[in-house]
Amino acid sequence: MTATTRRIKRVLDHTVDDASAAAAHAARSAERAARHLAEQVGEGTDLARERLHDAADATGMQVRRAGRHAAHVARRHPWWTVGLGVAALAVVAAAALRSSARHR
């Protein structure tokens, strides 16, 4: 083997070693980035779950409050409540009749 061939072989070996080290470094960096992303997604999911539970609790509280208020109004104004119920029934009946007339 000539000196030039040995030098070329040495340079190629060095280049392969550098490429191998760069690939290993890239793999470690990608693994760290993937772990970091997974942590962020997990934290985001936990936060979204918390907010959803808070919204559900607040909505439940508002629904109960509205129900109490409706019951209070119905007790204080029974005939008004009956009239409102009849009006709502008339609107639903008219919509149902109109919808059934369209499908004929």
From TrEMBL:
Residue ranges annotated as transmembrane are 79-97
* Record's keyword terms, sorted: Membrane, Transmembrane, Transmembrane helix
**What organism does this protein naturally occur in?**
Novilysobacter selenitireducens
Name the chain's protein. DUF3618 domain-containing protein
